[in-house]
Amino acid sequence: MAVDNLASALGSPGKFQMILYILLCCNTFFVAWNHLGMAFMGAKTKHHCRVGNTTDINEVVPLFKKGGKKEWDGCKLFVNGSTKEKQSCQNGWTYYLKGREQTIISEWDLVCDDAYKASLATTIYFCGVLVGGLVFGTLSDKFGRRPVLLFCLYSPSVLGILMFLIRDYVAFVILRFILGFVLQGLQAAFYITIVELFALKYRSKVGTVQVIFWAGGVMLTALIAFVIQDWKYIQLFITLTTLLQIGLIWFLPESFRWLIAQKRFDKAEAVVIKIVKFNNLEFPQDIFDDTVEKNKADEKTPTDSKKYTIIDLFRFRVLRKRSVILACIWFSTSIGYYGISLNISSLAGNKYLNFFIGGLLELMAYILTVFVTERFGRRKPLCAYLLMGSIMNIAAGVLSEKA
After folding, report:
1. Which Gene Ontology cellular-component terms appear in the entry (predicted)?
2. What is the distance between the alpha carbons of residues 125 and 121, in angstroms, rounded to a whole number?
């Protein structure tokens, strides 16, 4: 393609592309922190009924065995000193929290009959992620990558301040839905921008290396939660830090590929000039003119004027089969990944250390994958990873039942 020749002429890759690539990849941190932050902000918290000034809690709160250990019932009290009749907690709950630790569970008493609300908050957040993925992909095609990316990058800071100030569960859930909505828009926009920034031969590498930043974000999530501990301040930190990318307002250009596709050749030329100047290269006039001419010629071809929609993914048998398979893979791996990550507090040991080690292992896996895919392609490693993941999940379930 002519536009790919133009991308190669701007540096292979140059300083501009690499600096912008690193800055855009840093946005992965913000997405990872907010996607996974509920592992700590909504962590399961041990509790029992508040008993006031009672001297012996064993006379009021029932005991039961769990995993060979005795624990106080988190939702029941004995009635009038009886050891048989029980009633629900009458005066709230006492939570087992260390240091400055506070969670949304202790904030709004999301236990017993309301225990489902903690998981519901996470579910609604990822509903926002789903809707954001559907909406912002279309918006970035219509209005450009740059405005969508910048809007989705800076709006979380406003949402974070609002979540810090509110004291209502329903408002929190609504704001978290919007946060998931815009963060998925951010992820989609910066990934598209990264891919369109480089020549075709670099696309697979930059896409794979980008997920290494995700693993770094996972490890930093554990560190942030360990240092801050209070959910309100964790949420404020992981959203306000998006303002550290304020420099992108001036440094980030619109995608020249998108501008050329939209027939906005003057603006595309200005972007190309900015890139070659930064890379100390000459403006590739002949290549740019050839790209423009071929784009104009393609416009005159009737078949190229067709507008494609998601329905076209299911119009042809081969494309339909691949789309369904990939959708199932994304669905199953996402459930497995987030199901494990967001329930890390249920594992034995230190939840912060467990989470950090999980991120470290993830980092090692991503680095290994860069070399594995270079050697074996994508399909064979994908099948092997899915098979190993399935075996490990089944084994973990069986072993936990026996424990």
Report:
1. membrane
2. 6
